[in-house]
Amino acid sequence: QLHLQEAGSGLVRPSQTLSLTCAVSGDSISSGGYSWTWIRQPPGEGLEWIGYIYHSGSPSYNPSLESRVTISIDGSKNQFSLKLNSVTAADTAVYYCARARDFGDHHIDFWGQGILVAVSS
Amino acid sequence: DIQMTQSPSSLSASVGDRVTITCRASQSIRTYLNWYQQKPGRAPDFLISAASSLQSGVPSRFSVSGSGTDFTLTISSLQPEDFATYYCQQSYSTPITFGQGTRLEIK
Prior knowledge:
- The complex is a heterodimer of chains A (about 120) and B (about 110).
- Chain A has about 120 residues and is mainly beta.
- Chain A has strands at about 5-10, 10, 20-25, 35-40, 50-55, 60, 70-75, 80-85, 95-100, 110, 115-120.
- In chain A, strands 2, 4, 5, 6, 9, 10 and 11 form a 7-stranded mixed sheet that branches.
- Chain B is globular.
- The interface of A and B includes residues 64, 104, 106, 109 and 113 of A.
């Protein structure tokens, strides 16, 4: 059974950089056939796709965040990461890492439990 | 970006009721439409896709129809564990986008 676990700071100062990692267990992140995805959900609101990366290292970002976001992958550690710079209060959200199928209906089949990140001074 | 519009935004129903949630895409997404269920404090769970891929373990009372721009999720007979928020998601093109959610509450 695949398991994803987010880790990182739960409090980030405005204008600083939000940094999260997602540790993957139960399968190799380098095995192919999937995209490794970040999604966020502001408190009480809906879901926003941030972006994804393939094991080959090719990322795709939401244009609304593209100027501030970097997603990277580390096969040796079986993890992938999110960096979001110049954060504001609008970036306060639960951040989920997830795996999406790169075949068939491309649905997201596994999610991490989520980590709440607050942007506040 | 492809806009996804769900209706209704909230819905009150009773155990045993049949309920339908609709999702409309701003352009054709063929059958690249997925439905997720989210309960408070938890990550969403995949339910079913418009390509009729039903997640293992998901009860057969959940069904989906539609293609192109208009889709529906139907729960044939509501059970207590079905009260949650439901999201549609298009996986046809990036940026991946979600509907705003439908909160299903107990009447």
